[in-house]
Write a structure and sequence with these properties.
The chain has 269 residues and is of the alpha/beta class. The chain has one domain: 3-Layer(aba) Sandwich (Dihydrofolate Reductase, subunit A), CATH 3.40.430.10. Helices cover 22% and strands 25% of the residues. The strands form 4 sheets. The chain has a 9-stranded mixed sheet with strand order 6-5-4-3-9-1-10-15-14, sandwiched between helices. Strands 2-11 form a two-stranded antiparallel sheet. Strands 7-8 form a two-stranded antiparallel sheet. It starts with 8 loop residues before the first helix and ends with a strand. The model has no long low-confidence stretch (mean pLDDT 95). Bound molecules: nicotinamide-adenine-dinucleotide and the ligand Nc1nc(=O)c(N)c(NC[C@H](O)[C@H](O)[C@H](O)COP(=O)(O)O)[nH]1. Pathway: Cofactor biosynthesis; riboflavin biosynthesis. Keywords: NADP, Oxidoreductase, Riboflavin biosynthesis. GO terms for molecular function: 5-amino-6-(5-phosphoribosylamino)uracil reductase activity.
Length: 269
């Protein structure tokens, strides 16, 4: 039986000021999607026990909260390593959800080979989710025909995004301005960025703070230990080389959900 979650209307009302305009209210004035950064973390800032290991952090209440966020955003975005590690469904599993988010997979270097048995396609065939849009730096002529066809059959596709090659790794990278421009071009008016670590750390670069409209973090009362996938953005220093905090939330509120606490805030003044 497919998982069915419930999220109380009172909790939804508490979160409302943190969320994008309702999807049916077309706000034509925005030049980019509303961005919510959201993830579940341990007390030692870990998203998972190790790269490639799916790790349950959220209890039932905060998990339902995450799924409520999924139904309130046009799109849900994850990095390719999360797809390879988790085989995620990337759908909303709240009973009777009126909207499913469009999964966005950041796969600049084509690491993911989509397969018919992947959960994201399985839920799509059941009518319980949408097929992914895969953001890639590859040219159309380099895309594997079978992957293009599988995505197309389910209503998904590859979208080419401008990229630069990192000198350190030789891998293609996107800027968040370009990622969001690609979503805007698809009429995706809001996106929740769910992870994993590299995606979140790159979005927390001070250059991108102005792009983040809301931050919603589930904190679970557990330590995962060293070696996990950690949220800790690259350090920033002043002109004398002295480090200062990368980011601090303002307009903060804390909401208990079972054993977990959900921290809401904003990076904008
Ligand atoms: N607790 C949570 O809320 C949560 C959420 C998501 C994922 N996870 C966990 O996180 C782990 C995966 O995290 P991770 O850090 O290893 O990988 P990730 O999911 O962040 O994906 C990393 C990859 O994304 C791509 N990428 C990232 N930033 C990019 C950019 N700016 N431009 C182009 N490509 C970019 C690169 O290919 C990179 O290798 C998994 O174990 C997963 O279970 C946990
Ligand atoms: N809120 C939350 N609590 C957790 O305990 C946990 N492990 C995640 N993790 C999110 C995550 O690792 C990816 O976003 C999944 O890949 C999504 O998978 P599903 O779509 O739910 O199948 N998120």
């Amino acid at each position: 039986m497919a998982e069915q979650l419930t999220f109380p209307a009172e909790s939804a009302a508490v979160l409302e000021p943190r969320l994008p305009p309702k999807l049916e209210s077309k706000d034509a004035s925005r030049s980019r999607p509303f961005v919510t950064l959201t993830f579940a973390t341990s007390l030692d800032s870990s998203l998972s026990l190790a790269p490639g290991v799916r790790t349950r952090l959220s209890g039932p209440g905060s998990k339902a909260m995450t799924h409520y966020l999924r139904t309130r955003h046009a799109a849900i975005l994850v990095g390719v390593a999360t797809v390879l590690a988790d085989d995620p469904a990337l759908n909303c599993r709240i009973a009777g959800a009126s909207h499913q988010p469009r999964p966005i997979i950041i796969d600049a270097n084509l690491r993911w080979t989509p397969r018919r048995s992947d959960k994201v396609f399985e839920v799509c065939r059941r009518g319980a989710g949408l097929a992914p849009f895969v953001l890639t730096g590859a040219d159309a002529s380099d895309l594997p025909a079978a992957s293009v066809e599988l995505l197309h059959e389910h209503g998904g596709k590859y979208i080419r995004v401008p990229s630069t090659r990192s000198e350190a790794t030789g891998r293609l990278r996107f800027s968040w301005d370009d990622i969001l421009a690609a979503l805007q071009a698809e009429n995706l008016t809001s996106v929740m960025v769910e992870g994993g670590g590299q995606i979140i750390n790159s979005l927390l670069d001070p250059a991108y703070h102005k792009l983040i409209d809301s931050v919603i973090v589930t904190i679970a009362p557990t330590w995962l230990g060293q070696g996990g996938v950690v949220v800790s953005p690259e350090r920033v220093t002043d002109s004398a080389g002295v480090p200062f905090p990368v980011a601090r939330l303002s307009h903060v509120s804390w909401h208990p959900f079972g054993d977990d606490v959900v921290l809401c805030g904003t990076l904008q003044e």
